[in-house]
């Protein structure tokens, strides 16, 4: 079964418009980074992948990312798996790349995934209502 794990966290946008704070808030709001990530490993990987979008041929190996971030390959692979679960990183030709070309596109992709999830839940909810006699039918 293919799944996408989507976490949306509503928090107060930083008052200071420092790019790093906004990027941290943006990714944190999408549930990409959490409080347990003390050294901001996932954030650093996300930034490397984001910068890579501006290259002529986007896509990095886990070894490339580990070298650029100073993280172990195991740590990089762990966070890449989390980012793939969230549906924003894909593997193309054995290289990791963001699924989108911009952060605005990322929001659209996440919104579409959330809408699809809720549409599926509603269909099943209606079916369950019928099975449980909660649909008004007697």
Describe what this molecule looks like in 3D.
This protein is mostly helical and 138 residues long. The chain has a domain at 19-101: Arc Repressor Mutant, subunit A. It is 54% helix and 6% strand. The protein has five helices and two strands. The chain has helices spanning 19-29, 41-52, 62-69, 73-85, 103-132, and strands spanning 89-92, 95-98. A two-stranded antiparallel sheet has the order 1-2. Helix 2 packs across helix 3. The radius of gyration is 18 Å and the shape is elongated. The two termini are 36 Å apart. The mean pLDDT is 88.
Determine Rg (CA atoms, Å): 18 Å
Described by strand count, sense and barrel closure, the largest sheet is: 2 strands, antiparallel
Overall structural class, as computed from helix and strand content, comes to mainly alpha
CATH topology of the domain at 19-101: Arc Repressor Mutant, subunit A
Helix content: 40-55%
Summarize the helix and strand pattern as letters. Answer: HHHHEEH
Main features:
single chain; mainly alpha; Arc Repressor Mutant, subunit A; elongated
What topology does this entry show?
Elements: H1 19-29, H2 41-52, H3 62-69, H4 73-85, E1 89-92, E2 95-98, H5 103-132
Antiparallel strand pairs: 1-2
């Amino acid at each position: 079964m293919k799944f996408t794990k989507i976490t949306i966290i509503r928090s107060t946008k930083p008052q200071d418009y420092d790019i790093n704070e906004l990027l941290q808030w943006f990714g944190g709001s999408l549930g990409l980074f959490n409080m347990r990530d003390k050294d901001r490993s996932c954030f650093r990987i996300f930034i490397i992948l984001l910068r890579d979008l501006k290259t002529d041929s986007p896509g990095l190996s886990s070894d490339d990312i580990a070298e650029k971030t100073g993280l172990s390959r195991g740590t990089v692979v762990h966070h890449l798996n989390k980012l793939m679960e969230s549906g924003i990183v894909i593997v193309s030709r054995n290289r990791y790349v963001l699924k989108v070309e911009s952060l605005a596109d990322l929001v659209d992709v996440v919104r579409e995934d959330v809408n699809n999830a809720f549409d599926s839940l509603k269909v099943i909810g209606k079916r369950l209502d019928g099975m449980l006699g909660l649909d008004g039918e007697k």
